[in-house]
């Protein structure tokens, strides 16, 4: 698995420090609002669990699974809900937790769904942002790191379901997905 990585961008220590910084900021900004924190599965599962441990305010969590990449490094353009929320978002302050914003298609779809369900507010926290690849014009409210235009894996992010368990984020060697 390690031999498929071209370059480590952020190691475990750097990721943890950034997650803690985001958690402290979110705790201040969501004080007294009991936010519903939504993990966008599968990619955000590690970020979500590390993030909520650094948050010091009352909050609730829920999960939604969506997918658009499948076995490719390019979005299919069609976002599918694979698992929906258990909780109603009506009148709630909602915090979407994403691992990465790339084309922006997943997020724009999710924001639209949650606004149509009458959430009181929809805020987005993403650990990674790849602005060079955007096809939809949107930005997260909270961003951890801005990444170069490369396909990355680890810390929850996959290629064809592999590499999610790497503790760091790294660039995948192109020969892995070009073969
Ligand atoms: O901005 P976009 O181009 O939409 O890309 C970002 C989305 O793509 C990935 O999910 P994916 O569809 O691969 O599902 P996964 O989380 O199960 O890996 C990632 O976890 C984000 O949710
Ligand atoms: O660079 C990426 N890596 C893994 N999954 C992704 N989904 C969108 N962009 C990426
Ligand atoms: Mg994926």
Automatic annotation (TrEMBL):
<protein>
    <recommendedName>
        <fullName>Hypoxanthine phosphoribosyltransferase</fullName>
        <ecNumber>2.4.2.8</ecNumber>
    </recommendedName>
</protein>
<keyword id="KW-0479">Metal-binding</keyword>
<dbReference type="GO" id="GO:0046100">
    <property type="term" value="P:hypoxanthine metabolic process"/>
</dbReference>
<comment type="pathway">
    <text>Purine metabolism; IMP biosynthesis via salvage pathway; IMP from hypoxanthine: step 1/1.</text>
</comment>
<keyword id="KW-0460">Magnesium</keyword>
<dbReference type="GO" id="GO:0000287">
    <property type="term" value="F:magnesium ion binding"/>
</dbReference>
<dbReference type="GO" id="GO:0006178">
    <property type="term" value="P:guanine salvage"/>
</dbReference>
<dbReference type="InterPro" id="IPR000836">
    <property type="entry name" value="PRTase_dom"/>
</dbReference>
<keyword id="KW-0328">Glycosyltransferase</keyword>
<dbReference type="GO" id="GO:0006166">
    <property type="term" value="P:purine ribonucleoside salvage"/>
</dbReference>
<dbReference type="GO" id="GO:0032263">
    <property type="term" value="P:GMP salvage"/>
</dbReference>
<dbReference type="GO" id="GO:0005829">
    <property type="term" value="C:cytosol"/>
</dbReference>
<comment type="pathway">
    <text>Purine metabolism; GMP biosynthesis via salvage pathway; GMP from guanine: step 1/1.</text>
</comment>
<dbReference type="GO" id="GO:0000166">
    <property type="term" value="F:nucleotide binding"/>
</dbReference>
<keyword id="KW-0547">Nucleotide-binding</keyword>
<keyword id="KW-0660">Purine salvage</keyword>
<dbReference type="InterPro" id="IPR005904">
    <property type="entry name" value="Hxn_phspho_trans"/>
</dbReference>
<keyword id="KW-0963">Cytoplasm</keyword>
<keyword id="KW-0808">Transferase</keyword>
<dbReference type="GO" id="GO:0004422">
    <property type="term" value="F:hypoxanthine phosphoribosyltransferase activity"/>
</dbReference>
<dbReference type="InterPro" id="IPR029057">
    <property type="entry name" value="PRTase-like"/>
</dbReference>
<dbReference type="GO" id="GO:0032264">
    <property type="term" value="P:IMP salvage"/>
</dbReference>
<dbReference type="GO" id="GO:0052657">
    <property type="term" value="F:guanine phosphoribosyltransferase activity"/>
</dbReference>
<comment type="similarity">
    <text>Belongs to the purine/pyrimidine phosphoribosyltransferase family.</text>
</comment>
<dbReference type="Pfam" id="PF00156">
    <property type="entry name" value="Pribosyltran"/>
</dbReference>
<comment type="function">
    <text>Purine salvage pathway enzyme that catalyzes the transfer of the ribosyl-5-phosphate group from 5-phospho-alpha-D-ribose 1-diphosphate (PRPP) to the N9 position of the 6-oxopurines hypoxanthine and guanine to form the corresponding ribonucleotides IMP (inosine 5'-monophosphate) and GMP (guanosine 5'-monophosphate), with the release of PPi.</text>
</comment>
<feature type="domain" description="Phosphoribosyltransferase">
    <location>
        <begin position="9"/>
        <end position="159"/>
    </location>
</feature>
<dbReference type="InterPro" id="IPR050408">
    <property type="entry name" value="HGPRT"/>
</dbReference>
